[in-house]
Amino acid sequence: MVVILYGLIARPLFLGQEALSLEVVFILAAFFSVSELFYLGFSWHTIQDSIVKKISASN
């Protein structure tokens, strides 16, 4: 959430800089999300299985 707020809102409105591209924001958000899950003790296999189950359930 912080990455999205900083990259798309804070930079252009408060810092006068160009907003980060959506690709960069999404990659950074995914990186920090997975990093937090690793820190909380989840394995990559568990994370990947959860993502696959959610995507396959939406079809």
Write up what this structure looks like.
There is one protein chain. This protein is an all-alpha fold and 59 residues long. It has one domain (2-57). Helices cover 76% and strands 0% of the residues. It has helices spanning 2-14, 22-39, 44-57. Helix 1 packs antiparallel against helix 2. The chain is elongated and about 40 Å long. The model has no long low-confidence stretch (mean pLDDT 90).
Mean pLDDT: 90
User: Can you tell me the number of structural domains?
Assistant: 1
From the spread of the alpha carbons, the general shape counts as elongated
Q: How much beta, percentage-wise?
A: under 5%
For the largest beta-sheet, the strand count, sense and barrel status come to:
none
Total number of strands: 0
- Multimer state: single chain
Topology order in helix (H) and strand (E) letters: HHH
Helix content: over 70%
* SS-derived structural category: mainly alpha
Radius of gyration (CA) equals 15 Å
**Distance N terminus to C terminus?**
27 Å
Question: DSSP helix count?
Answer: 3
Uncertain stretches of 5 or more adjacent residues: none
